[in-house]
């Protein structure tokens, strides 16, 4: 069972690596990866009271995959962000890799997400506001970018 302790913490060099795409031949592995992501996220929810998404590299799975648990679970494989709206908003972002730190960042208000689901079906999802920012956060993890690297300025950090 994966827990908070299995999530890579700020400073771990793997968090700064660019992930490889999931190949269709790896689809049989995805269910186990998603189960691990789900378990770690549920433990964060219990311990810290937050968590709507987690990216595979946060568990050392260096693949372009993230998992969201919103109104239902979403498995996002090889995502692509399209039509990023120029309209942005400022927010305090949090991350499971540093659960007590909040970082002030700007995120795009809306965008289009294209991805494969757990059945290797191509999907398109138009998202806005809190879902848009969540997807941008998780997508950044796949490129080795943490919200600390997107901070608005040197004073854009605070403890939860």
Would you mind describing this structure in some detail?
With 160 residues, this protein is of the alpha+beta class. It has one domain (4-159): Peptide Deformylase (Alpha-Beta Complex). It is 22% helix and 31% strand. The chain has two helices and eight strands, in the order H-E-E-E-E-E-E-E-H-E. The chain has helices at 27-48, 129-142; strands at residues 53-55, 65-69, 73-82, 88-93, 101-108, 110-116, 122-128, 157-159. The strands form two sheets. The protein has a five-stranded antiparallel beta sheet, with helices on both faces. A three-stranded antiparallel beta sheet has the order 4-5-8. A hairpin with a 3-residue loop joins strand 2 and strand 3.
In brief, what are we looking at here?
By secondary structure, this protein is of the alpha+beta class. It has helices spanning 27-48, 129-142; strands spanning 53-55, 65-69, 73-82, 88-93, 101-108, 110-116, 122-128, 157-159. A 5-stranded antiparallel beta sheet has the order 1-2-3-6-7, with helices on both faces.
Itemize the secondary structure elements and their pairings.
Blueprint: H1 27-48, E1 53-55, E2 65-69, E3 73-82, E4 88-93, E5 101-108, E6 110-116, E7 122-128, H2 129-142, E8 157-159
Antiparallel strand pairs: 1-2, 2-3, 3-6, 4-5, 5-8, 6-7
């Amino acid at each position: 069972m994966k827990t908070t302790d299995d999530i890579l913490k700020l400073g771990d060099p793997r968090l700064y690596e660019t992930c490889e795409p999931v190949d269709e031949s790896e689809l049989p592995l995805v269910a186990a990866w998603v189960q691990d992501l789900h378990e770690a996220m549920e433990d964060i929810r219990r311990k810290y009271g937050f968590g709507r998404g987690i990216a595979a590299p946060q568990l050392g799975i260096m693949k372009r995959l993230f998992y969201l648990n919103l109104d239902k679970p979403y498995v996002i494989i090889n995502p692509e962000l399209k039509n990023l709206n120029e309209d942005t908003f400022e927010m305090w972002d949090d991350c499971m890799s540093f659960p007590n730190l909040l970082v002030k960042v700007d995120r795009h208000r809306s965008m289009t997400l294209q991805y494969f689901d757990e059945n290797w079906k191509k999907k398109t999802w138009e998202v806005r506001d809190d879902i848009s920012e969540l997807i941008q956060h998780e997508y950044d993890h796949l490129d080795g970018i943490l919200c600390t690297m997107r901070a608005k300025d040197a004073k854009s950090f605070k403890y939860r």
